[in-house]
Amino acid sequence: MPPSIHPVDLIAALREKSLTPAIVFLTSRRACDEAMEAFDHARTVLPPERQEAIATALERVIAQYPSIAEHPLIPTVQRIGVAAHHAGHLPSWKIAIEELMRQGCLDAVFATTTLAAGVDFPARTVVITQSSIRKARDFMDLTIGEVQQIAGRAGRRGKDYVGFAVVTPSPYIDLHVLTKGFTGNPEAIDSQFTISYPMVLNLLKAHPHEQIQAILAKSFAQFQLNQRANVLEGKLDVLHTQMEPFGPRVCTDWITQWHTFDQARRQKPHRHQTARHESPEVTARFHFMTPGRVVGLNKGRGIVLRQYRSKGQKSPMVTVLRAGGAITESPAGTVTDVFDRLFECAEQQGYPWCTSESFDELLYQLTELPTRLPLLPILVSKESDLIPDAIVQSLGDFPCPSCSSRPACQKDYLVASRLRQEQQRHIKSIQALRTSLWHRFQERIDVLQKFGYLSPASHLTDDGEWARLIRIDHSLLITELIRAEAFAGADPAVLTGVMASIAHDDDRPGAFPRVSTGLSSLLGQVRKLAESLSPYEDPPLLRADIAAVAERWVSDPGLTWIGLCRSTTMAEGDIYRLLARTLEFLSQLHTLRATHPGLADSASRAIDLIRRGVLEELP
Amino acid sequence: MTTDELQQLLAQQPIAVLHRLARGRVHRHFRAGKRRLIELLLQHSSQNLAGLESDLQALIGERQAQPQSTPAPARQTAPRHPAPPPNRRPHRTHEPESTEPSVSLAAWLEGLGVPSPQPFVPDPWQVEALAGLAETDVVVSVPTGSGKTYVAVEAARRAMDENRTVIYTSPLKALSNTKFTEFSKIFGSDRVGILTGDRQDNSQAPILIMTTEILRNLLYDAAGGEIDVRLDTLGLVILDESQYLADPERGVVWEETIIFCPSQAKLLLLSASIGNPQDIADWLTSIRPSPCRLVRHSKRTVPLRAGYLHPNGKLTPLFRTAGIPYGHPGQLHPEAKRLFLEYEEDTLPSGRPRR
């Protein structure tokens, strides 16, 4: 069985049951194009009168948008009455398809789910072949709202009694997601409020610093945060009533009192060296086993060269020089005697732990030692299990041991302290919810002050005055570029290239024309700056290959749209969107004509150069 | 049961059972291949093998209780009468099994056709929205295709009759263009203007169409002291597709626009069905001068029916009822369910004949 129904069969099946016109939602643009290609060898052809209807309808659109007169898909669409509609197409072509669909000339349109919201035409039937959608480079299950948005295209008011949503399986389908989507309630929407640099500048331009908090409080974000805070406050009230039986007793804050008392009572002496399993004797003697000290071992005597504690060894270790010049490592516990005799010893890092002169000297001294040596008197402190004095004293300060409510406190402490902890946690969360937006705003202010767009008193500086007019993504990067005079003397083509690479956020690979050296060196600078700004603003992709497409369009006024499309593998719809977005960015630069006349002039020339051919057809 | 026994038992099951078992345990993208799926199932429930086992037994029991029923009817041409007997098997979702027979294809397709042209009568919700707009802000949340445009057009007409400017915003340039053409046809091209970042066509017209970002910029300019006559006479702001409020990147623009919308202008938020329109309305009430009116309904103007088309060209209803069984996603049509399970079994790599 094929993994999914063949497009020709699909359309045939829909036609047979009179379920046309239909919108078929497919996973990708490529799937749409391949579905169209599948009709190349199909024998189904529209009757001549319908072909003519399509032709007349198309003519009317072409009169308005001449760029699509030569569109390669026109013959196919006319022959089979089916078209594709996706973001890879020119807007004017999409308008033509929408118009054909509205007039009922087409039987089906293949569209991508990604732009289900942008498909603004209804049909009798929608066909759904997938249950997930590509979002930010990852496939996500369709939400209930999205399924209903897609299904919503089915059924034309006034033209259909009922609309149909037909599911046809493909390898990308989970029926459960779709049935849930059809029958469920759409999800609640959440605020996605973010605070951008231009927002801060524009707010501070219009309102004094102290009014901002009130303005932020008007956002839907704060409304939703307040809702959450209110829920917490409800919980807090419940906790409050639960806390009532644990009110003040003999002392007002008995919970803290009992807590400290309990802590003190339970306080154990801190981990002693006893934990290392060394007897107090060894500990006491170890202090004296310094380099040069004569010690007695099981067999014979020796002179300590060094002492150390090592993680690998349980007990402290000493390195001992033995008679005959041997150097041994032994645990301090094996030292039987510590003698009252100390020699000079010049220490040294690394074997043999002392200089060769003192080594010879010590060796000589060892052989010359008298048979009897006085022992070093070492006082060994007895191990004590006593609570440290500080605690004993403080226990005396507590009223608890003799308090009348002691049994009650002891019994209630666990419940009461848990309740109180919860209470404090809620209070903290509520505070955070109420002030988080303001804190985020303050963070932005700090950055803007650091860069000099705001004065320390949060007034707009001269730079801030013009920077607030740049209200696009990556605004900090753009304003910093302007301040660094990166665009000084840049011709419109290079400026366009840079703006295009900042504006473009898609990583679709492809083949592109060559980038000019001037542009590529400028892009190098931009990239460096973007990287240095990355703690404050996410850097854009800054693709040089994308910049080259926009640069070519501006630098060569003789270049036709077809010529530009041939120079790259980018889909024409994508090129159009890239240039349209670049136009938006350039027009923001154009608003700076009062302060940066050169740049604004360059931008306006670039705008004029971009706006030709296809780009001129639509506002 | 040991892991090995469990593994053997899993291996004996048809892939469809494994798929149902995998639901919620293994992500859908990793469900290809029976052996691999078994591995993943065991791996993901290594903490709770007993749970996996009991679920498996339940599924097996369910499968046995359902004798290999619903034999595929030989032909689909004639409507089947009577419809297949109601299923008696225990249902996996805990909803009461409907006792009505499943709808037949013929009944499902009934009503196909073009209604005779009828004089346009606005729906009650449209009237309600327009009435509300006479006094205050209105939030409209209705299913896609219910006729939000009618409300927008009528509201704009009424505002213009009072010599007020109307601003209409949409999230996408393409939609702006469509609306520009549509409004120009209705009101005449001299009364409709469009504003984009770099072009202003007929910018002094009483109806201005723009993307929401452009309106936000206009409002910021006005707040910053640049006077715009268009905002002084502004009587109505229509924000279409307001569910974009939840867009991760651009949602903030809708919030800014609503916060800074001049108080003398009325707001009309048109949105597809969303889960919490009341929240939006409450929010507007809290920040706007007058309490906001919410107009919502979930019934589609043109009723929807869901179907299932098998790759072999066979069409069946998707649900047991002709319409959508709202709130009961489990009420699948037995035929659709059988075909889909067959499809999953046939197309997944493990189900293919060995080569």
Can you walk through the features of this model?
The complex is a heterodimer of chains A (619) and B (355). Chain A is an alpha/beta fold and 619 residues long. Chain A has four domains: 177 residues, P-loop containing nucleotide triphosphate hydrolases (Rossmann fold); 154 residues, no CATH class; 82 residues, SH3 type barrels; 149 residues, Sec63 N-terminal domain-like fold (Orthogonal Bundle). In chain A, the strands form three sheets. A five-stranded parallel sheet of chain A has the order 2-3-1-4-7, with helices on both faces. In chain A, strands 11-10-9-8-12 form a five-stranded antiparallel sheet, with helices on one face. A two-stranded antiparallel ribbon of chain A has the order 5-6. Chain A is elongated and about 130 Å long. The two termini of chain A are 48 Å apart. The relative contact order of chain A is 0.08. Chain B is α/β, with parallel strands linked by helices and 355 residues long. Chain B has three domains: 63 residues; 173 residues, P-loop containing nucleotide triphosphate hydrolases (Rossmann fold, 3-Layer(aba) Sandwich); 48 residues, no CATH class. Helix content of chain B is 40%, strand content 13%. Chain B is built from 13 helices and ten strands. In chain B, the strands form two sheets. An eight-stranded mixed sheet of chain B has the order 4-3-5-2-6-7-1-8, sandwiched between helices. In chain B, strands 9-10 form a two-stranded antiparallel sheet. In chain B, a hairpin with a 4-residue loop joins strand 3 and strand 4. In chain B, helix 1 packs antiparallel against helix 3, helix 2 crosses helix 4 and helix 9 packs across helix 11. Chain B is elongated, with a radius of gyration of 28 Å. The two termini of chain B are 34 Å apart. The relative contact order of chain B is 0.13. The C terminus of chain B is likely disordered. Classes of the chains: A alpha/beta (619), B alpha/beta (355). Chains A and B meet through helix 1, helix 5, helix 6, strand 7 and helix 7 of A and helix 8, helix 9, helix 11, helix 12 and strand 9 of B.
